[in-house]
Write a structure and sequence with these properties.
Layout: E1 4-10, H1 14-24, H2 28-37, E2 49-59, E3 62-71, E4 80-86, H3 93-100, E5 111-116, H4 130-134, H5 139-150, E6 156-165, H6 167-178, E7 183-189, E8 208-213, E9 224-225, E10 231-232, H7 235-246, E11 254-258, E12 263-268, E13 277-282, H8 311-321
Parallel strand pairs: 4-5, 4-6, 6-7, 7-8, 8-13
Antiparallel strand pairs: 1-2, 2-3, 3-5, 9-10, 11-12, 12-13
């Protein structure tokens, strides 16, 4: 049986801090107002999330960790959505927290956002990657255990929202297939499983928004031989395979402008909203989360960044529609 522990830290409420300053220092408000007025001090908006919880849990005897952001007044809310944000290989949950800031996006008030850590910084997506795959780590079981654990913190919906980057995106597809009955919608970025690995999937349809840079040197959107993932077909084939599983009409796709991603997305739809499957190819973007600055590690092997984009906002809006 999985056992978990937590370490809670309340995120500072800056407006409350300034209120206390005024109470104990009568001139505090006057001084603060002057500093703000002349632009010396900027009063930041309060963080959307109210509580950060560090959790650990044992799966098959292995200690796993993850960070949970609970929204304000989580205990008084019902049917909160849960979002999982999976990092790339050699990354961490902290990396994805800082790269995406999904727990601070507009609309996050009704989400519990989870940033998990992979086994030795990798995820087992069935055919990839690293030590997680070599050791056959049960990351499907880890996902399900996290869902059960988060359910002890607040009232949640039974299906989660998944996004991930690179190896994390592969895990998103793997979970869509192996635990589809617990996935409400998915928004992977910069990697995909070949269609033949999405056969015999369990669960119902899962709405999909696949994001991919057209200048990604590690996982080319048009497919081909890669350094780490072997030979890949075009990403469109995987999106079409998901659309087919969702019951979408492949004969008449539509096109939707996506300003936050700086592109127009190809979208397959069907009779229900759950049939949706979209491919958003982002011009001039490499293997870098849309909105991030260029990654300093790797000597440029990740390709160009697009810090002008708002990838996290696009993900949040997609999830709110589903």
């Amino acid at each position: 049986m999985a056992r978990s522990t937590d370490r809670r830290r309340m995120i500072p409420d800056l407006p409350a801090f300034f209120s206390n300053l005024v109470y104990y220092v009568p001139l505090g408000l006057l001084i603060l107002a002057f500093l703000v007025g002349v632009g010396i001090v900027a009063v930041p908006e309060p963080a959307t999330a109210a509580e950060k919880v560090e959790r650990t849990i044992r799966i098959d005897g292995i200690r796993r960790s993850y960070t949970v952001y609970l929204p304000r007044n989580a205990a008084s809310k019902r049917d909160l959505r849960v979002m999982f944000v999976f990092h790339p290989a050699i990354g961490t949950g902290k990396f994805m927290e800082e790269a995406t800031r999904l727990h601070q996006m507009p609309g996050s008030d009704d989400f519990i956002v989870v940033y998990p850590d992979g086994f030795m910084r990798t995820w087992n997506a069935g055919s990839c990657c690293g030590m997680a795959e070599k050791r056959n780590i049960d990351d499907v079981g880890f996902f399900k255990a996290m869902m059960r654990d988060v359910g002890t913190m607040a009232s949640i919906r039974p299906k989660a929202y998944l996004t991930g980057f690179s190896n994390g995106a592969l895990l998103v597809y793997h979970l869509m297939c192996k635990a589809g009955d617990q996935v409400a919608a998915a928004a992977p970025f910069a990697a995909y499983l070949p269609p033949d690995q999405l056969r015999n999937c369990r669960g119902g349809p899962v709405p999909l928004m696949h994001m991919h840079g057209d200048a990604d040197p590690g996982a080319p959107v048009e497919g081909g031989q890669t350094n780490y993932l072997g030979f890949l077909p075009p990403a469109r084939q995987t999106v079409e395979a998901v659309a087919r599983m969702n019951g979408a009409d492949l004969g008449s796709p539509g096109y939707v402008e996506m300003p936050a991603l700086g592109t127009i997305c190809l979208r397959y739809t069907g009779r229900t909203a759950a049939a949706e499957a979209s491919l958003c190819v982002i011009p001039g973007l490499g293997h870098v989360w849309p909105g991030m600055e260029a990654r300093s590690e790797g000597g440029g092997k990740f390709g160009p960044a697009r810090p002008d984009l708002q990838g996290s906002a696009a993900v949040m809006r997609f999830f709110l529609r589903h």
